[in-house]
Every structure is written in C-alpha cells, then in structure tokens.
User: What shape does this take?
Amino acid sequence: MKLRTTLIKNANIVNEGSIISGDILIEGEFIKEISSSISAKSGDVLVIDAEGKHLLPGAIDDQVHFREPGLTHKADIKTESRAAIAGGITSFIEMPNTNPQTTTAQKLEEKFEIASKTSWANYSFMFGGTNDNLDEILKVDPKTVAGLKLFLGSSTGNMLVDDPVVLEKIFKSTNMVISVHCEDENTIKKNLQEHIEAYGENIPISKHPIIRSEEACYLSSSKAIELAKKTGARLHVFHLSTGKETNLFSNKIPLKDKKITSEVCIHHLWFSDKDYDKKGTHIKWNPAVKTEKDKEQLLEALLDDRIDVIATDHAPHTLEEKSNNYTKAPSGGPLVQHALPAMLELYHKEKISLEKIVEKMCHNPAILFDVERRGYIKKGYYADFVLVDLNNPWTVKKENILYKCGWSPFEGTTFKSRITHTFLNGNLVYNNFKFSNKKVAKRLTFNR
Assistant: This one.
C-alpha cells in the first residue's frame, strides 16, 4: 500500500533551541526528511506552503482532567481532546480522579478502551495511588502507562494519600515517575475554618490564596522532596504556584539526569490575585493563583530551568457549578484550547522565547516521561506538528470555545497568534477551524 505523503514548504522550524527555515517531508505517520529545500517527486503529494508561519512540535500536556468516566456532564475525552488539537496539543496524559477512580488495573484499561475509540489526540493516563492499593500499583507496566499520580492534598474520593508508612512504601516500590499534588491538608483546613468563622458562607474569593496558602504548598512540596531523596524515587511536582517552592528545585544538571522535577501551569503564569475581583471563581484553582510576585518568580524559575515543564491542569466544570459561592464552587478550569496561544502572547511581550516555549511544552515532557518518538521535529519521529501564524489576531468568544463546558477564563482575551494547522501521526487533522473526519490518535508508548 502506498504511504500518504505530505510536504510542508518554507516553514520557520522551531526545534531544539533554534529556528531554521526549511521543508519537511512526511511519509505515512513519520518524518521522512528535513532539509532547506525538498521537491515533490509526484503529483499526489499534499503540499502546504508555510511561508511566514512557524512550525512547532505538537505540545505534550502532562496533566489534564477530561472527566471520563463518571463526570461527563462537564467534559469527556472526545470533546476535550478535540479542543486540545485546536490548541496545538497533540498528546495528553490524563489524571485518575474520575468516577470510578483509576486505581485498579481494570479501570485503567477501561479508560484506554474509551480513548481508543473517541480521542482526537494521542493519549495516556496516570494510575492513581491510594492508602490501600499498593498491590494494584505493582501490577502496572511502566512501558505502557505514563506514571503514577498521588494526591498529597486536595483529593477527590479516597485518593488523599496521607498515611506516611504507605507513602514511603509507594516511593520505594515503583520506578515510575511519581507525580504529586502538594498542598498540606491540615494547614488548609485550619485556614478555612478561620475564614468560615470570620465570613460564614460569604468568604470572598480573594481569600482563596490565603486559605490555600504559600505555607500549605511549601510544607507539602518540601516533605515530598525529602521523601524522594530518602527513597531514591523519581518525583515530579505538579503545578507549582509559589516563588518560595521554586527554590526547592535545581538547574545544576540536565533534565534527563534529574530525579526531582517540577512543572508550572498556564494559569499560574498568566493570572495573579489582582484578577480575582474581575474573574471571581472562574480562576479558582487548587493550588490557588497567588501574588504578582509569585507569578514573576515562577516565570524566572521556568526560564532558568528550575521548572522543567509547562502544563494546563485542564479541569472543566460547568458554569453553573463555578457560579456557586466560594465554599461550594469547585476548583479548576478549562485550558487546553488556549494554552499555547497564551504562551505565545508571553512571547510577544518578550517574556519568553519561542525556543523556550517548545522546550517546556514539547521536548521536556517527552524527556521527563520517556515518551517514544514524540516532542521533537526529527527524522524518524511521529509527525505531530503545529503551524502557527504569529500575526493573525483572534478573540476568545463563546462561539469559538470548543470545551464541553462552553466557557473559558480567557473569554474576551485577544491573542495575536493563531494555530492554523495541526498534524497528528502524519495526518492533517485541523486546518483553520475545520477538523478532518477521521480520528488517527494513538496510545502513547514509553521508552523505558
């Protein structure tokens, strides 16, 4: 059977710390050739002229909540992965706090089965740890699953792992990347009770970063790191939200050699406590969006490589749910469609380079999770690409939001950059707001 062939001409290729002008030949699912100039050798080659556009590897989002199974009134794998493709995210790793939770081998395979039929983007899942499922954790094959997720704070269901003996056993028992949500529950409970006594049901949303405080984050993160150093575990700390936490991490060695790594999310780089008055519970996340100084320090740590990855923590809720008062409004918001445009906006503001964005959203997640043949523009790699027009402004409006929940914390924001094409496994799956009719997503594999 003849392989499908696509030739991308005249692109500004952003890859491995440089930007070069050139052509890329895709044959079937893979990159066949990269050169300054490639000619189409037959008439049945799809030729795309990328003159003036930038070609980036497809982003790999290491932390999303697509809500399936059990919470599909908010989102599902089909709708959210489609939104991700429109946002230039070609691969995602989804979290285990669904209903039922992904804490047994059987439930994990059931999610893979759903994704195999409905996902628009390449997919994998985290396996969830609890206080009593070590036997199930030991069944997981590290070559076929992204990693292990532990909630050391802010869990749903019974996923809070708060037994120190169990925690140490888990850290000692697995070679998988252990990704953790770090907020100290006791500190938060104490702070929340004090605010309930002061405000009753009417706690202002601006108190969220005081209730879910810097102290709560730092205490939990530092304990997790201490345990990782003691046990030799491979630890990845999700969604840092404070400048203070960034000092717990090192930039002294390359990412591939690090045992302890960290990530920052889009919302912690974009919003600050100044935005609560206008955005209200729409920017209520756990960990909380904190001060302008924290935001600046997070960006600084991202640029100097103490922080390794940019992710979304995409976690939709309905507008009705988010419109409740402080104590009842759930934390989380939708982000996959707007994450890359938001980072490109920071590029336009001269706060980060295109090369650094690609490093943190594409290369580094691939390195950190040992994702096989993705995250780079290299011969022999899967052809997961995004074409971006850096000078094609558009405004986020209800009618162009693709999330099932139908809203975005970026509503009303005008982005200068537009994603015009997304390629997945060699296929053009998104072209100027139009999707192809066939799904070509694959289960991620891991080179471990």
Residues 354 and 378 are 18 Å apart (CA to CA). The mean pLDDT is 96. Residues 58-368 form a domain with the TIM Barrel fold (CATH 3.20.20.140). The longest strand covers residues 5-15.
